[in-house]
Design a protein that fits this description.
The protein is α/β, with parallel strands linked by helices and about 375 residues long. The chain has a domain at about 50-135 and about 215-380: Rossmann fold. Helices cover about 35% and strands about 20% of the residues. It contains 14 helices and eleven strands. The strands form two sheets. Strands 6-7-8-3-9-10-11 form a seven-stranded mixed beta sheet, with helices on both faces. It has a four-stranded antiparallel beta sheet with strand order 2-1-4-5, with helices on one face. The longest helix has 18 residues, at about 230-245. It is globular, with a radius of gyration of 21 Å. It starts with about 45 loop residues before the first strand and ends with a helix. The structure holds iron/sulfur cluster. Iron/sulfur cluster binds near residues 332, 341, 346, 351 and 364.
C-alpha cells in the first residue's frame, strides 16, 4: 500500500535524527505541506503507481539500461519531484508513462498503473486517448514542442477538439480562456499569434495552457523552467502551484534543480543510474538527506545565505555509462564514503532501498555512520 504520514518533518522511525539546519540552502522557496512520502516495493492502489520499471534500449553498442527497477507512487493533488543528473533516467521514466518510446528499440518491463489501469499493456488507441486528455506533459523546450506553422490558439484548440469533441467555436473560446488562465495578456488578440511572436516565458505558458486545456488528472513536467530566467521561472512555478490547487492534478516534476524541488514538490525521489537512491518528503530529504549522492547534489548548490567563501563542491567524477554500469552500488566509483562501509561491499553488493514509512535510501552505510558523516562533514558545507 502506498504512502505514510509525516506531517512534522521529524525523522521517521528507523532513520537517524540528523538534526535540523536552520538555514539549509535547499530551502529556497515556499515549501508545500509535507504529509506523505512516495513508497515502493509492495503493490499500491495510488493514483499513479510505478513498480519495478525497467526501460532498456537496444543500441549498436549494446543494451542501455536507462531505467533499472524504479518504483514510486503519486496521489492526486500532490507533486512528486524527481531529481538527478542528466542521464539518470528521469525523462526516460516519464516518457514510459506516456508510452512514447519506440517499441522496436525499447524493452519496457514492470508496471505503471494509472487510476487502476495498467498502462504498459494498454492498447495504443486507448493510450492515445488518455494522452492529452487525462495525462499531459509539459516538455522542456516549448519552441520545439510548438509547431511554427499554426497559431498558438489553433494548437491549444486542436488539442481540446480532438480529446473533448468540442466544435471549433467552443475550442477557440477555450483556448482564449486557457491563455488568460496562464497569464497571457490580451488573450483574445494573442490567441492568433504564432509561437515566434511569443517570448520564451510566454511560449512556456502557452505549453502549460495546452497541457491543461483538457483538465488532465496527471501532469508530467519535464524540466519546464530550465530554459527560463529566474524571474520567469518563479512565475511559472507559482502558476503550476495555483493550477494544481485549482485542478487538483497529480504532478510529476522532473528537474536537476533541488531549489526548484524545494519550492514545488511535496515528495522527492532522487535518481542515479536509472534507480531511485533516496525517497521521502521534501522536508525529510532536503533537511536530513541520508544518501551520499544526495549529499553531493546538495553540496554542489550555491549557498545564498551562508559563507560566500565556502567553495561549491561538485559531485566528483561523471555519471556512469548505462551500457556498462558499475558493479555493486552504481555510485561507488564517485563515493567518498565507501571505505567506511569496509571491504569491497560497495563495489560488489548492490544496495536496495529499504523504506520505513516511505522514507529511505539505497546505501550500505550504517545509520550511525550516516548520522556522523552528515553532522560532521555534510551539514557544515550546506551553510
Ligand atoms: Fe557510497 Fe557505499 Fe553507500 Fe554506495 S553503498 S552510496 S558506495 S557508501
Amino acid at each position: 500500500m502506498a504512502t505514510s504520514q509525516s506531517t512534522t518533518g521529524e525523522p521517521t522511525p528507523g532513520e537517524p535524527d540528523l538534526g535540523k539546519p536552520d538555514s539549509g540552502k535547499p530551502v529556497l522557496g515556499k515549501e508545500p505541506e509535507a504529509t506523505r512520502s512516495p513508497s515502493s516495493g509492495a503493490p499500491s492502489d495510488a493514483f499513479l503507481s510505478v513498480r519495478d520499471l525497467r526501460v532498456h534500449f537496444s543500441t549498436e553498442d549494446g543494451i542501455v539500461k536507462a531505467v533499472d527497477g524504479l518504483s514510486f507512487d503519486v496521489e492526486k493533488g500532490r507533486t512528486l519531484g524527481i531529481v538527478g543528473e542528466s542521464g539518470s533516467g528521469k525523462s526516460v521514466s516519464s516518457l514510459s508513462i506516456l508510452g512514447l518510446h519506440n517499441p522496436e528499440r525499447t524493452t519496457i518491463e514492470g508496471s505503471i498503473r494509472f487510476d487502476g489501469n495498467e498502462l504498459l499493456s494498454m492498447p495504443e488507441r486507448k493510450l492515445r486517448d488518455l494522452r492529452g486528455r487525462r495525462i499531459s506533459m509539459i516538455f522542456q523546450d516549448p519552441l520545439t514542442a510548438l509547431s511554427p506553422f499554426y497559431t498558438v490558439g489553433e494548437q491549444i484548440a486542436e488539442t481540446y477538439r480532438r480529446h473533448m469533441g468540442a466544435n471549433r467555436h467552443d475550442a477557440h473560446a477555450r483556448a482564449i480562456e486557457m491563455l488568460d488562465r496562464v497569464g497571457i495578456p490580451q488573450p483574445k488578440v494573442r490567441v492568433n499569434d504564432y509561437p515566434h511572436h511569443f517570448s520564451g516565458g510566454m511560449r512556456q505558458r502557452a505549453m502549460i495552457a495546452m497541457s491543461l486545456v483538457c483538465d488532465p488528472d496527471l501532469l508530467i513536467a519535464d524540466e519546464p523552467t530550465t530554459a527560463l530566467d529566474v524571474t520567469v521561472q518563479a512565475q511559472i512555478l507559482d502558476l503550476l502551484r495555483d493550477l494544481q490547487d485549482e485542478f487538483g492534478a497529480a504532478i510529476v516534476f522532473i528537474t536537476h534543480d533541488l531549489g526548484v524541488i524545494a519550492s514545488m514538490a511535496h515528495d522527492v525521489l532522487v535518481m542515479y543510474a536509472g534507480r531511485s537512491v533516496e525517497k521521502g518528503t521534501v522536508r525529510e530529504v532536503l533537511k536530513t538527506p541520508t544518501h551520499p549522492y544526495t549529499w553531493g547534489l546538495l553540496s554542489s548548490m550555491p549557498n545564498l545565505t551562508g559563507d560566500v567563501d565556502v567553495p561549491l563542491r561538485p559531485v566528483r567524477g561523471t555519471p556512469p555509462s548505462l551500457l556498462d554500469p558499475p558493479s555493486g552500488c552504481p555510485f561507488h566509483p564517485r563515493c567518498d564514503h565507501a571505505a567506511v562501509v569496509g571491504g569491497d561491499r560497495c563495489a560488489t553488493e548492490r544496495p536496495v532501498i529499504s523504506l520505513v514509512d516511505g522514507r529511505g535510501a539505497a546505501c550500505h552505510l550504517a545509520a550511525q555512520d550516516k548520522e556522523r558523516i552528515f553532522l560532521d562533514e555534510v551539514r557544515p558545507r550546506l551553510g
